[in-house]
Amino acid sequence: MRRLLLALPFALLPLAIAHAADEHDHDHEHGSLGAHEHGVGRLNAALDGQTLELELESPAMNLVGFEHVATTDADKAKVAAARAQLEKPLALFSLSAAAGCKVVSQELESPLFGDKPDADDHDDDEADKDGHEHHHDHSEIHAHYQFTCATPGALKTLDLANIFNTFPATQKIQVQLISASGQQGTEVTAKAASLKF
């Protein structure tokens, strides 16, 4: 199921190294594509035959406005609203109706969703003693979607305008796209939100 995107980390190595060189001056902890930067999301997209996979990673700050585990009703409502939007990928990614894409599987993961009750939560009790207060400072939201598209040739563009409209704190998205026409890496912004397959 995941074979398309499994190859991505290796395919992206030269880009990650170039990115690291670019970011080096900005004093980032880790200047790779995995760097946690507010306002910046990452999207991996792979189209292989009728199968389309999209993998979106974003700092929680971009999607809900904070990165701590929601405790107040207001914060919980924001998390629930963001999750509801992420559960409608056909609308979020503006996939062409002519392509006839259907969601085969979707997974949403984030410490904010309470998906990982194991190591993360146990550390909280000892946060003060160990000095790890910043354990949750970099909460990510990770969404992985797989679609089957009846007419993949109708997928001419990937339009991310709805992501910027829905989550206005997102300023740019770094996209890696693999399709029959090859591999491309680009950055999209709200003003230029679409790219060609």
Quote the distance from N terminus to C terminus. Answer: 21 Å
Total number of strands:
8
Low-confidence stretches: 6-33, 117-136
What count of helical segments does DSSP give?
A: 9
Helix content: 25-40%
What's the alpha carbon Rg, rounded to whole Å? 17 Å
Shape call: globular
Strand order of the largest sheet: 3-4-2-1-6-7
Could you walk me through the main structural features you see in this protein, from its secondary elements to its overall organization?
The chain is an alpha+beta fold and 197 residues long. 30% of the residues lie in helices and 30% in strands. The chain has helices at 3-6, 8-11, 13-23, 60-64, 73-86, 89-92, 119-125, 127-130, 161-166; strands at residues 40-48, 51-59, 101-109, 140-149, 157-159, 172-179, 182-189, 194-196. It has a six-stranded mixed beta sheet. Strands 5-8 form a two-stranded antiparallel sheet. It is globular, with a radius of gyration of 17 Å. The two termini are 21 Å apart. The relative contact order is 0.20.
What are its keywords?
197 residues; two-stranded antiparallel ribbon; 9 helices; 30% helix; globular
Short note summarizing the structure:
The protein is an alpha+beta fold. The chain is 30% helix and 30% strand.
